[in-house]
Structures are given as structure tokens and as C-alpha cells.
Specification:
2 domains, 9-stranded mixed beta sheet
Length: 364
């Protein structure tokens, strides 16, 4: 029996192979591991002929963010969300902008620890309406994220997944049973990009998007980081937007975000504002009702507009809400058309603040 610490827990999505290895069945990477080996995500390991999670209860840090930073523009606007991640990732994106966390192989990255109940208590005490599993992909800390979500749900606190959507059907079904909202990175719309630049495949992500939209009650928004010369052609954006409208519906918001040089793509220039503005135009021309620009200062691209009469429904300047023209039941105050989303009578007032939190202050 191998030595285990309190952060190591058994998992259920795996099976033994005839050659003695154990295959992880959590994501479509299907890592096949000899004794002691870790998967590409680094946090799932073959111990004692089973796959275990080695980071249960440990985090790279906790912070209160505006919900718009996830980004979610149609889910409890203006409210604070307690955000945390762990270490590792099941993708290998060359442009990763959280690479110090997602590519970490150092246990020291996990500087804080908390039980699911501790996180729920902290979120409640700090008046956070939701908890976000973010910074790295919650797919890889599946068991921990679900336990946190259960503890939060008992206190009326929502759960938000920020994910690339690269997960197998059975764990996907279990995971989204406990989520209330998700922002999924649709990183591109070609298999070539996914294979060469992220080390994964497009089809499973599209399957996840359709599953969330059509088989759950989870509020869904999409984000695409537009990288110059890689996934920013008008043709690709048009095809992506058309697919979203046809397969997911016109009410799923799309966020087009600016790339900045990072990780293994330092030689690629930042995304011009004009590219993001044009992507937003293409999406709306394709029938997407709510399209946004991100990582740039563009108040028109930050704001929510009525798809029927064109009135500004929610004015935004970066993460600050500057205007609110929704009725108490989420309709345009000018024409009465419903705005898709999860809204309350008034927005939150958290603003653009970012507040680090120490979970040890909320120990039982």
C-alpha cells in the first residue's frame, strides 16, 4: 500500500488495462499510467492500481472577483464571486495565460487549503453569491469541485465552472448536476488549432457545449481568445458563430477576448481592438444576440443591448456596471423584450474590486 496524505482521495473514472496499467477515464486524453505515474494534468495519479486525485482540499489561492471577470455577463451581474483553482491542467495550450498555475509541477503552488465546508462558510460570510472553479480547469479536480458545490448549495450559494469543456460523458453528467453556470472556452473552431496548439480535440468540446445547453439547466456563456493568425479569420469566426446559433441557440452569449503574448507564444503580437470589434459584429450578423469584447477597454463591447429594439440594457465600463435598464423580471425597460440570463431586480454593487482571501480565517 502506497503512502497517502490527507490531500489524496480515490476517484471512480478509471479502469485497469490488460498490460497492468490503469487508464484514467475522466477526460478524452485517456492517460494510461504505470504505477506511480501521473497524467498530463499532473494531479491525477496511479497509486495502488487506481487513479487518485492528489490535490483534494488544496488551492493556489482564493480571491473575490466580479462575476463579469469569469466572464459571465448574464448571470447575477455586479455580484461578487469567490474564485479558486488548484494546479495542473488536462490541456497543453501554448498560449496559456495562467501557465504558472495550470502548468505547475510544484506542490508549493498550492499555498492554501480548505475543506468544502470551509469554502462555503467563507463565501457566505463574505457575501459572495457564487463560487467559481477557475484559474485552472475544474475538470481535473472533479471530486473536490463537486464536494464544494454541494456544500455551497446547502447555503444557497451558486457554483460557476470556468472550463475548456474537455471531459468524458459520464463525469460530465455528474459534474454539471452541481453547477449553476459555466463559461466554456471555445478556443477555436478548427481541429487543426485544437490538435497543434492545445494538444486536444474539438469534437468533445462541442459535445460538452450541446450537453450543457440542451440537457441541463446550467446558464452557459462562451469565450474565445482571438490569437492573431491562429484563430481570428473572419471565415472561422463566422462558422463558429453560425454553429452556436444553430446548435446552441441565439441566446448563448459569446465573448471575444484579446490575446497577449504569454507562455510559449511570446512571438505572437497582441490582438488588435479592431479584430475583436469585427468578431463581435460577425457574431451578431450571424444571429448571436449577445456578443462581447474582452480584455480591452470598449464600453459598447462590454455592455448588453436589447436584441429587439437596440436599447442599452446593462451599461458596463470594464467590470463596473454604469447603467441598468432591465425590469424586475429581466425584460427591456423600453420594449418589454426578455433578456436571456439569470437576473435579479437590481444588480450587485461589487464593482471591479479584486480581494484576496485567506481561507484559514474561516476554519471551523
Amino acid at each position: 500500500m502506497s503512502a497517502r496524505d490527507k490531500y489524496t482521495v480515490s476517484t471512480k473514472y478509471w479502469h485497469k488495462l490488460d498490460d497492468g496499467r490503469v487508464q484514467c477515464d475522466l477526460c478524452p486524453r485517456f492517460c494510461k499510467l504505470h504505477a506511480g505515474q501521473r497524467g498530463l494534468c499532473f494531479v491525477r495519479q496511479n497509486l495502488d492500481d487506481e487513479i487518485v486525485l492528489t490535490t483534494y482540499g488544496r488551492s493556489s489561492g482564493y480571491c473575490i472577483d466580479p462575476i463579469e471577470k469569469k466572464p459571465l455577463n448574464h448571470f447575477l451581474p455586479g455580484t461578487p464571486v469567490l474564485s479558486f483553482g488548484t494546479a495542473g491542467c488536462n490541456l497543453a495550450c501554448k498560449f496559456c495565460q495562467n501557465w504558472d498555475i495550470s502548468k505547475s509541477r510544484e506542490i508549493d503552488t498550492l499555498a492554501d487549503e480548505a475543506s468544502p465546508q470551509q469554502i462555503a462558510r467563507a463565501a457566505e460570510a463574505l457575501h459572495c453569491r457564487s463560487v467559481a472553479y477557475t484559474y485552472n480547469d475544474p475538470v481535473i479536480f472533479h471530486e473536490y469541485a463537486i464536494d464544494v458545490a454541494i456544500a455551497c448549495r446547502e447555503k444557497g450559494i451558486k457554483s460557476v465552472a470556468v472550463t475548456a469543456g474537455y471531459v468524458c460523458p459520464e463525469p460530465r453528467q455528474e459534474f454539471y448536476r452541481y453547477m449553476d453556470a459555466a463559461n466554456v472556452d471555445l478556443k477555436a473552431f478548427t481541429e487543426d488549432f485544437y490538435h497543434k496548439i492545445t494538444g486536444s480535440h474539438l469534437a468533445p468540446v462541442l459535445e460538452t457545449l450541446q450537453y450543457i445547453k440542451h440537457e441541463t439547466d446550467v446558464w452557459l456563456e462562451l469565450t474565445t481568445l482571438l490569437i492573431p493568425g491562429k484563430n481570428d479569420s473572419e471565415k472561422e469566426i463566422h462558422e463558429m458563430s453560425q454553429w452556436v446559433v444553430e446548435k446552441l441557440g441565439p441566446d448563448v452569449p459569446m465573448h471575444f477576448s484579446a490575446f497577449h503574448p504569454d507562455w510559449k507564444m511570446m512571438d505572437v503580437p497582441p490582438t488588435p481592438l479592431a479584430t475583436l470589434v469585427r468578431a463581435r459584429e460577425i457574431a451578431m450578423e450571424s444571429g448571436v444576440r449577445y456578443a462581447y469584447t474582452g480584455n480591452v477597454h470598449n464600453t459598447d463591447g462590454d455592455s448588453t443591448w436589447c436584441h429587439n429594439c437596440g436599447a442599452k440594457l446593462i451599461g458596463r465600463d470594464w467590470y463596473e456596471i454604469t447603467d441598468w435598464k432591465l425590469t424586475a423580471d429581466g425584460k427591456c425597460a423600453a420594449c418589454g423584450t426578455a433578456c436571456a440570463g439569470v437576473f435579479e431586480a437590481r444588480p450587485g454593487a461589487w464593482g471591479a474590486r479584486r480581494q484576496p482571501v485567506r481561507l484559514r480565517d474561516f476554519a471551523a
